[in-house]
Amino acid sequence: MSRRQPAHIFSQRLSWARQSLHVPHGARFASTTPPHKPRLASRKVAYTLFGLSLSLPAGYYLFPSSSPLLPYKYSDQPLQSSSPLTPVHKLLTVAVPPTSKEWFEKPYRTDGTLADVGGGEIVVQHVMVKSPDIQIERPYTLINDPVQEKSMRMVVKRVRGGEVGRVAHSTKEGDNLGIRGPIPTFSIYPSQYDKIVMISTGTAITPFLQLLSKLSPSSAPSLEIIHALPTPSPNALASNGSTPLSPLDLDWANSQQDPTFLPRHVEKFGSGLKVTRFVQGTVPREAVEGALVG
Ligand SMILES: Cc1cc2nc3c(=O)[nH]c(=O)nc-3n(C[C@H](O)[C@H](O)[C@H](O)COP(=O)(O)OP(=O)(O)OC[C@H]3O[C@@H](n4cnc5c(N)ncnc54)[C@H](O)[C@@H]3O)c2cc1C
Fold this sequence. Notes:
Belongs to the flavoprotein pyridine nucleotide cytochrome reductase family. It comes from Cryptococcus floricola. This is FAD-binding FR-type domain-containing protein. The chain is an alpha+beta fold. The chain has helices spanning 5-21, 36-62, 102-105, 146-149, 163-169, 206-214, 262-269, 285-293; strands at residues 75-86, 89-95, 122-130, 137-141, 151-157, 176-188, 195-201, 222-228, 273-278. It has one domain: Elongation Factor Tu (Ef-tu), domain 3. It has eight helices and nine strands. The strands form two sheets. It has a six-stranded antiparallel sheet. A three-stranded parallel sheet has the order 7-8-9, sandwiched between helices. Strand 7, helix 6 (206-214) and strand 8 form a beta-alpha-beta unit. Helix 1 runs antiparallel to helix 2. It binds flavin-adenine dinucleotide. Flavin-adenine dinucleotide (FAD) is lined by residues 126, 138-141, 154-157, 159, 161-165, 185, 203, 206.
């Protein structure tokens, strides 16, 4: 959209120049001979305005600002970073364009109404990422608080035969990614609860990492995360290429590689956050029952 903006600015500026010079369309071809001096002065103004109208669009193309991020329309967003976390997980960082920060500061709920951020409501958001080749899109959850950090981060798992995962994993820093968003995943008034229990397996921990990033220890209720690591695909090999991949090789969430991963939240919330983890597969029933009772 904004790629077309310079043409628009250009034509606007020329018509503004015409108005300020009181030159009607086609006046150049009129046979009247205006007085000598005013004509020179008009020329100077015209050259200045013409110069401006050329230099502004040229500057736009030489130093492009990123396109606005919109929930209803795709735009190409440059990746600030694209770093591997495990053999199958990548961490992607995208700057929030300054013109788009309101989507995060004044978020919408899933029903389309504005959230009551001032009243303590938190909206967990995701974005849609598209494949440039075929018309498919997939949702990816932000793991951080884009208002505080002015950037969005997501962890993308590559699954066998997965198209958008393949696109995300083939990116490097500076590449463009087709994104639309943010889109509300769910919203919650944390202060209305005595305890929030967050149960997930694998990358499904991402909405909880965002919630923890947006929560303040001073206003948070008691928190508990129950998380099971995913089972690696059979025959998947660790980064050394010879030993089979173990669940711990996929344990990015418990690493120090990003400030939104579990160790930093444990530091931030102290005894206010209990983390119970299972190395492989499913979350046992007793763990959920224990969290709900305790
Ligand atoms: C609200 C929401 C938020 C999400 N947030 C994240 C996120 O933060 N990070 C993230 O990595 N994913 C997230 N997902 C899942 C993501 O949107 C895609 O479904 C996933 O990345 C696969 O897309 P793909 O195009 O690569 O594979 P597809 O072409 O859709 O799938 C290829 C094959 O892989 C299978 N498959 C799909 N997902 C998985 C999986 N997780 N494990 C094993 N097999 C699978 C499919 O059934 C299919 O057979 C989220 C989904 C939702 C609904």
